[in-house]
Specification:
The chain is of the alpha+beta class. It is 38% helix and 20% strand. It contains 13 helices and 12 strands. Strands 2, 3, 4, 5, 6, 7, 8, 9, 10 and 11 form a 10-stranded mixed sheet that branches. A two-stranded antiparallel ribbon has the order 1-12. Helix 1 (14-20) packs across helix 13 and helix 7 runs parallel beside helix 12 (316-341). The longest helix is centred in the C-terminal third of the chain and has 26 residues, at 316-341.
Length: 386
């Protein structure tokens, strides 16, 4: 258990306080970040986190740009940076070598908080997790990020909570890594993973059913199917096929457990979906797969508007820190947009927030909107075990 004493920073800029407010309680619950050796920390974990959130929120394009703002811009100096400022070497040392355990704890606690606050969609489909991988362009100096000769890329294996439109578990690997083994790590018991046909592996279909982890996965058109039972198909439906089958040829990558296959047609194109969800209608299975596109929309928005893949770290450790901070920033925005506007995250609302922060930073303290009191303090803390 930890007691804490508020630090020097006072978030009197009302809009920034509202955006950051979900972190206040969370920071006090995480593991204390200890200095190594006798030299004190140049940045507390909270200062690391604030700096990385600010990097994403304000669309900085490089670590140097961020550090310049932390040392020269009035708002960033007063509310984000350490009291004594921060050097380039100290910043990059911190990002690349410490704080990962704490960052994961913050993300987990913030996801739980968002899970209680944000409304749930598609509840009739159950708890859906969209699963996919996305590549990150790397530099040639990032030797761990193997992809192909002369090209370096890292890969993020991603779970996206569709019901509340927030990111879930992630894993960072080199660009060549197979995505399929990460499905079992991303999914929890009772959840349904929604995946494209790259994830088709019949052995995995058996393993996921054994672990009570459900799936809705597109399969290749020519996949061999041994029919066990034919289900009725509604007239005038996009669904043209619904059956319980054994997938795969005899003695060749064949499922041991029965799988339901739904075929549907949209704009003249046929889709074949394998699932273990026998409780859903065929139309619901088709709809669940069509919702998979939402993860692609998220990837595009996240990369474009939060500059997540403008690298400020080259190590696997540092890049993981940067990506986790990008996820935390997105969830903070999701909570902020819901509580302030009753809406999902949009670039319109994010730009409004950025403009409010900048405008409020220019106002004298006595003209700041919202309450101004000693309660408006950061959660920078002096920890003491009790």
């Amino acid at each position: 258990m930890y007691d804490f004493i508020p630090g020097r920073k006072r978030f009197r800029r009302f809009s920034y306080f509202k955006f950051r407010e979900p972190l206040f309680e969370i920071i006090g619950l995480i593991t204390k970040l200890e200095a190594r050796g006798d030299r004190p920390l140049q940045m507390t974990f909270e200062e690391q986190l604030d700096a990385l959130i600010y990097f994403h929120l304000e669309e900085h394009t490089s670590g140097r740009h961020l550090i310049q703002n932390l040392n020269e811009e009035t708002f960033a100096k007063e509310n984000i940076a350490p009291a004594e400022g921060i050097s380039k070497s100290s910043f990059f040392e911190a990002i690349n070598s410490r704080g990962l355990e704490q960052m994961l704890e913050v993300l987990t606690l913030l996801q739980a908080k968002a899970g209680k606050l944000l409304p749930k969609e598609f509840q009739n489909l159950g708890e859906l997790v969209l699963i996919d991988g996305t590549l990150i362009d790397a530099t040639l100096s990032m030797k761990w990020a193997d992809y192909r000769s002369g090209v370096k890329k890292a890969k993020v294996h991603f779970g996206f909570n569709l019901n509340q439109s927030i990111p879930g578990k992630i894993f960072l690997t080199n660009g060549k890594a197979d995505e399929r083994p990460y499905v079992a790590k991303i999914l929890e018991k009772g959840q349904t993973g929604v995946m494209d046909r790259y994830y088709q592996r019949h052995k995995n279909f058996d393993e996921w059913q054994e672990a009570e982890k459900h799936f809705v996965c597109r399969i290749k058109d020519r996949t061999w199917k041994k029919v066990v039972k034919i289900n009725d198909v509604k007239q005038d439906s996009i669904v043209f096929y619904d059956a319980v089958v054994i997938l795969g040829a005899l003695k060749k990558n064949r499922t041991e457990k029965e799988v339901r296959v739904v075929g549907y047609r949209v704009c003249g194109k046929r889709y074949w979906i394998a699932t273990d969800r026998h409780d859903l209608s065929a139309e619901d299975v088709a709809n669940a797969y069509k919702l998979r596109w939402n993860i692609e929309v998220f990837f595009g928005w996240w990369k474009r508007h939060l500059k997540v893949y403008h690298l400020i770290a080259r190590s696997r450790y540092g890049l993981t820190m940067q990506i986790l901070a990008g996820l935390i920033t997105y969830i903070l925005l999701a909570i902020y947009c819901h509580e302030e506007y009753g809406e999902k995250v949009s670039i319109v609302r994010v730009r409004e927030l950025r403009n409010k922060i900048r405008n409020e930073a220019m106002l004298p303290e006595d003209e700041q909107p919202g309450p101004v009191s000693d309660n408006f303090v950061s959660t920078e803390k002096v920890y003491a075990k009790t």
